[in-house]
Fold this sequence. Notes:
Number of helices of chain A: 6
Shape of chain A: elongated
Structural class of chain A: mainly alpha
Mean pLDDT of chain A: 83
Radius of gyration of chain B: 21 Å
Number of strands of chain B: 2
Protein name (chain B): Calcium load-activated calcium channel
Largest sheet of chain B: 2 strands, antiparallel
Membrane topology (chain B): Multi-pass membrane protein
Structural class of chain B: mainly alpha
Low-confidence stretches of chain A: 1-17
Helix content of chain A: over 70%
Function (chain B): Calcium-selective channel required to prevent calcium stores from overfilling.
Strand content of chain A: under 5%
GO cellular component, one term (chain B): endoplasmic reticulum membrane
Subcellular location (chain B): Endoplasmic reticulum membrane
Largest sheet of chain A: none
Radius of gyration of chain A: 19 Å
Oligomer: heterodimer
Strand order of the largest sheet of chain B: 1-2
Amino acid sequence: MSTKTNTIERHGNGSAKSSTLKEICARAITKSEWEDKEEFLDVIYWSRQVFGIILGVIWGIVPLKGFLGLVLFAGISCGIVYLYAINFQNVDEEAYGGVWELVKEGFMTSFAGFLVTWIIFYTGLHYDTIMAAKSS
Amino acid sequence: MWSDTILIVFISVCTAFLGEGLTWVLVYRTEKYQKLKTEVEKQSKKLERRKEIHGDSLDKAVKKKIERDEEKLKNNNRDLSLVKMKSMFATGFAFTALLSMFNSIFDGRVVAQLPFTPISWIQGLSHRNLAGEDYTDCSFIFLYILCTMSIRQNIQKMLGFAPSRAASKQGGGLFGAPPGQFK
Lengths: 136, 183
């Protein structure tokens, strides 16, 4: 038993170290096998952060307002992660402890990042309009 | 209006690096922490794998072994939390001082406009020290907390200081639920 565990462990660590960022990115955008679970979760985590910031900028530029903006972000963010992991990469959700584990990976951090960029762009770009609407 | 918000983002990046730097000096570089961390990580992974393999096995010996491992992991996790505690106090003090300084600088100032009206129990934070009843006004502290939430965790992860997923899943240290409780 212990021999088996050690082999898997060494293999897992080895593959994590040998793959560079470039390789991981290349594997992330194509359909590939993910032997190292941590690596796949990292891909989800970081792409989610970037995605959250991009959505925040778009919401701020549009500008989207109110509860709708929050719900839309949560829906799109979780939906895309779900579709990406289950439909595109075809990973076995049970190996990760269920869909929920995948969907919530890095959600709060990306949500905070999204809120910050949304607030900053909304305030920066539309300050005069907001103030005019408030004073009228 | 850009200046205030960008300044707050900058402040939170600086404080995040400061916090991590302080923790590195006090905790991360110490031998004791590194030893404990590798130990916890190794044990968590081992335990997770063992649970996967023997999932619903009713074998008493296996169960006992898993329980013993969980107990060991719990003890190590507790030791790790105790080691971290020292720096938590130090950074806690430093941050309270810094925060009260920034709070007085931004006192009563609307730093941003929120594109949504926060729910009532967040309004106390987002409207702290601000005059008026307009809850889309955003106070310094709210934006700072949001920035810290995203920036500090990402910096931790980037620098490799964040606890591994296996370790945090198997038990959250002193205050976390005992491992295996939800299984």
